[in-house]
Amino acid sequence: MRPEIVVDLAAIRHNVRTLVGLVAPASVMTVVKADGYGHGMVEAARAARGGGAEWIGVATVPEALRLRDAGDDGRILCWLTLPEDVEDGSLARAVESDVDVTAYTVERLDQIVASGANPRVQLKVDTGLSRGGAALADWPALAQRAAEHQQAARARITGIWSHFSCSDEPDHPANDLQHERYRAALRTAEEAGLRPDVRHLANSAAAILRPQSRYDVVRVGLASYGLDPAPGHTPDLGLRPAMTVRAPLALSKRIDRGEGVSYGRTWIADDATTVGLVPVGYGDGVPRHGSNAIEVAIDGVRRPVRGRVCMDQVVVDLGGELAPAGTPVTLFGPGAHGEPTAQDWAQACGTISYEIVTRFGASSARLVRRYVDGDRD
């Protein structure tokens, strides 16, 4: 075997199907930005559609066009448009391909309208994340301009949306504040004459933990891939992690007491032991912050990483055993066979599971991505 990322498409279908049942009558939008959080954008979108996702969400215009080129003809929402998208014709292609494109400003709204006949446009209001979206002070002007375009049949305003900043902390006061600001923005839009097809506010954590925020659509990214969007708060829904990362052991050998492992000798053997070389490193997605912190699994037994994570390899403590070269090593997976999970790695590295899976799939050119179907294979 070679180092690989194994993605179970059946797990994605199952997760989306579970979320569809949970949030009904709201519809589900599965987010597949950043190459499907590392799982593969096109394949993840197809699996999500198979699980009942009515919408697919992407960040960039090129991502939306890639889905269209791959044959996805369902509803797609894109929320990051750049001046280059206007200049190189990508925005016009997206409009022609019936992609819902998001506007944050009057200027960008006018550019979208000028890019094609009667485009599908969604408006985003910034309710407190201070990222994308119209500032509250600018929202009335954007809503009014959108209403003018719609009344003149120059655009279809299909949605109004926003995004929580703290939905993974259900008791955080920002959640109520943002929700009230969103309600106020909807009232302003209605007063301007807008009647959008869909309203959406909830991401994965809010979709699960804050039912009052579901509206017409919920945007679920991480939960679609079976990972917990709010560790410590989320009920067990039976979601199944879809990604497993595996590699063969390249070498095992004995080291004496007092020997150091890897750069900087940040780990010194207290006793004689054996170590194994796993041919993946931070160049493949293993966080360097995982040095002396993360674990892998060999034959269902967890083995700690010793020393610093290198660009192409990590060293693990085999506890005296000498496993032969080629022995399969599971870096992380669903956790059903004793292996660490992406969440385990995230906790060890002081980050979130979003980053763990995304950096593997989106950054590594050396790991083969292999798809399986747990319902059939």
From TrEMBL:
Modified residues (N6-(pyridoxal phosphate)lysine): 33
All copies of domain Alanine racemase C-terminal, residue ranges: 242-372
Enzyme Commission (EC) number: 5.1.1.1
Cofactor(s) recorded in Swiss-Prot or TrEMBL: pyridoxal 5'-phosphate
Cross-referenced CDD domains: PLPDE_III_AR
Organism superkingdom: Bacteria
Residues bound to substrate: 131, 311
Function according to Swiss-Prot or TrEMBL: Catalyzes the interconversion of L-alanine and D-alanine. May also act on other amino acids.
Protein family (similarity comment): Belongs to the alanine racemase family.
Entries under HAMAP family matching the protein: Ala_racemase
Protein name per the record: Alanine racemase
Phylogenetic classification of the source organism: Bacteria, Bacillati, Actinomycetota, Actinomycetes, Propionibacteriales
